[in-house]
Amino acid sequence: MEKILVPTDFTPIAELGLKLASEIASRSGAIISLVNFTKHPFGRTFSATADTTLQSEPEESRFMLELLRVNKAKLEDLAAKYTREGVEIEYTIVDDELADGIDDYLEKEYIDLVVMGTSGEESAQEVFTGNHTEQVIQVSSCPVLSVRDGFHLQDFENIVLAVNMIKDEEVLKGLNTLRQFAEAFNSHIHMVHVRDNATDSTVDLNIFFKRMAESAGLQHYSITILEKTDAAEAVIDFAREVRAGIIAVIKNSKEGIFRIFSNHFSDRLVKEVGRPVFTYNLLNN
User: Fold this and answer.
1) CA distance readout (Å), 133 to 2, 85, 257
2) What span, in angstroms and rounded, lies between the C-alpha atoms of 164 and 260?
3) Contacts with 280 (C-beta within 8 Å, 6 or more apart), sequence order
4) What pTM was computed for the model?
5) Which is higher by pLDDT, 155 or 132?
6) What whole-number percentage of the chain has pLDDT above 70?
7) 77: helix, strand or coil
8) At what angle do helices 130-139 and 265-273 cross, to 10 degrees?
9) Sequence spans of domains, the chain
10) What is the CATH T-level fold of the domain 153-284, as seen in this structure?
11) Residue 198 pLDDT class (50, 70, 90 cuts)
C-alpha cells in the first residue's frame, strides 16, 4: 500500500477512519490522502488560500468561500493531530460530492485503500452511514475498509476472510492488499468458506483454497469449511469465536466470484458486528 484515501466531513464518525488509517500508515509507510468533498462554484483549480477578497464576491459566494477556508483549517488541524513519525498526511478539498467525485479521485491519485468511518446505522442526517459506505464500495476500484467506533488494534491479530469458489486470477488483486494489511499488523487470516452442497460436492475445498492462498503469498493463514444454511450468520459467528478484529469480503456479485453472500452483507457486518469490514468489489476492475 502506497496511498490511503480518508474522506471526511469533519464529524467524529469520519474521524474514526483517519484514526485507523494513521495506524495502518505507521506500519506500512503509506501516505494518507485526507479529503473533504465539497461542491463549490469556484472551479476545480480553486485553492482555499487564493487571493480572493470576500467584499468583491456576491453574498452566496462569500459564504461558500468562507466555508472552504474553514474546512481547509479543519483539514490542517486533523492532519496535525494524526501526523507522527512515519505518518505523512496530505489534505485537500475536492470540488464534487462524495458519491460523484470519489471514483475520479481514486483513479487520478492512484489510491490503494479507502478507509471510511461509519455509524453502522441508516440515518439521513449522517453523511457516513452504511448506505454511503456501500455507495463508495459500488464504485471503488480498490478495497474499502469501513470503520465503526469500538475497534481494538489488539484484535487485528485475527482476520476472517469470507471466501467463495473462484474462476479468475483477478481475485489476487484483492488478496494482495489484504495480505499487505495482515503483514503490517502481523495478523493470522482465517479463510472461511460456507459449503454449498449443490456446487461444492465434487471439489476438495481445502486443496482449492490452499492453492489460492499460496498463489496470493499469504504467510499466516488457516482454512475452515462450514456447513451452514445462512452464510452471513455463519461468518459472523465464526468471527466472534476467534475474536477477529476485521472481517474481509471480496465480492463479484455479477459472476459470483468471491461474491457477497447477500445484497447487503457488508452493511449487515458493520451493523451487527461493530468491527472494521474490508470489502473489495471485483466488478470495478
Assistant:
1) 22, 30, 21
2) 9
3) 142, 143, 144, 173, 174, 177, 178, 248, 249, 250, 251
4) 0.85
5) 155
6) 75
7) helix
8) 140
9) 3-147, 153-284
10) Rossmann fold (3.40.50)
11) low
- Of the segments 45-59, 150-164, 251-265, 268-282, which one has the largest average pLDDT value? 150-164
Q: What is the pLDDT of residues 96-137, one digit of tens each?
A: 888 788 888 998 999 999 999 887 665 444 444 445 777 787
Phi-psi region of 4 (alpha: psi -120 to 50; beta: other; left: phi over 0): beta
Torsion, CA 54, CA 55, CA 56, CA 62, rounded to 10 = 40
Question: What average pLDDT does the chain have?
Answer: 81
CATH 3.40.50.620 fits 3-147, yes or no: yes
Q: Which distant-in-sequence residues (6+ apart) come within 8 Å of 67 by Cβ?
A: 38, 40
Q: In what order do the strands lie in the sheet with 144-147?
A: 88-94, 31-37, 3-7, 113-117, 144-147, 277-281, 246-251, 158-162, 188-194, 221-226
Q: Is 3 exposed, middle or buried (0-12, 13-18, 19+ CB in 10 A)?
A: middle
pLDDT over threshold 60, residue 227: yes
Amino acid at 93: I
- Answer yes or no: are the C-beta atoms of 139 and 150 closer than 8 Å: no
To the nearest 10 degrees (0 to 180), the angle between helices 265-273 and 231-241 is 40
Asked whether the beta carbons of 105 and 94 are under 8 A apart, the reply is yes
pLDDT digits (tens, 9 = 90+) for 170-187: 667 778 889 999 999 999
- pLDDT bin (cut points 50, 70, 90) of residue 215 is confident
Query: Is residue 271 within 8 Å of residue 242, measured between CB atoms?
Result: no
| Contact status, residue 146 vs residue 20, Cβ threshold 8 Å | no
DSSP string of 120-172, one letter each residue = SS--TT-SSSHHHHHHHHHH-SS-EEEE-TT--GGGGGEEEEE------TTHH
